[in-house]
Specification:
Rossmann fold, 150 residues, single chain, alpha/beta
Length: 150
Amino acid sequence: MRFPFRKILCPIDFDENSLGALDKAIELARHSKGEIILVHVVPLVMPFGDAPIPPDLYVDQHEARNKLDDIAQKKLSGVKHQTAIWVGDVVGSILEAIGKFDPDVLVMATHGRGGLAHLFLGSVTEVIVRKATCPVLTVRGEPSTVSGKN
């Protein structure tokens, strides 16, 4: 394990939880004078057969690039950083990014899904924690008040 963590990979999906994880990654980067690699995966859902690539995919990539650049401009001022867009399976893409960038640590959000949602959707973070070749810092989002508990 390399410490201090100077190369920090942070996958985001633009929701509040992943932006909270980015805030933690920024803290680490500022403390260690490190670099953040900000990654977004555009999920690719392909129909079976010889279907062409959906035209919306190019729009999704363009919109994702604009959002990623906007977040980098607003949040990463004064922090060395780079951004990357991946297209495909979310877990596979994050694991590819780990292989390509060889980060010292990966910082990512947990989404706190439970029950049936977790059963059917699984947990990207859970799979990444098991398969990553670098340490993974998970950042939990705000607790849900759905159950009536605070």
